Amino acid sequence: MVAPLRAEIARETGTDDLDALVPEWLTVPDVAEVTGRDQREVRRWLQEREIVAVRRGERAVASVPAGFVTAEGPLHHLKGTLSVLADSGYSDVEALAWLHTPDDTLPGTPLDALRANRKTEVRRRAQASSF
Length: 131
Prior knowledge:
The protein is mainly alpha-helical. Helix content is 54%, strand content 11%. It has a 3-stranded antiparallel beta sheet with strand order 1-3-2. The protein has a two-stranded antiparallel ribbon with strand order 4-5.
């Protein structure tokens, strides 16, 4: 009976759609390995919303888009952008989708633009697209 409930939660939050947009996911232990930090610190990043995760898959494992972290830690401009998206009415799932949706006018995705240090343009667009 547990498996159908988990599938229902995944459908409810829209994580199936995210799999089409997000090219690679990392678990908390994977993020710790990539960044060279311990899992406690990765969980602190999640608590402080420096990165966000969604529960995915049959086991509902907390998963972070790989593009959210670098070898040094969380992507530098991500925390502020996540705050702008939350203030604009986006849920975590919606914010992840928005950050990974291609935009020909950027070009690429908003996440690509953040990685290229174009945070002002990304945040301006996030505010303009508020609900």
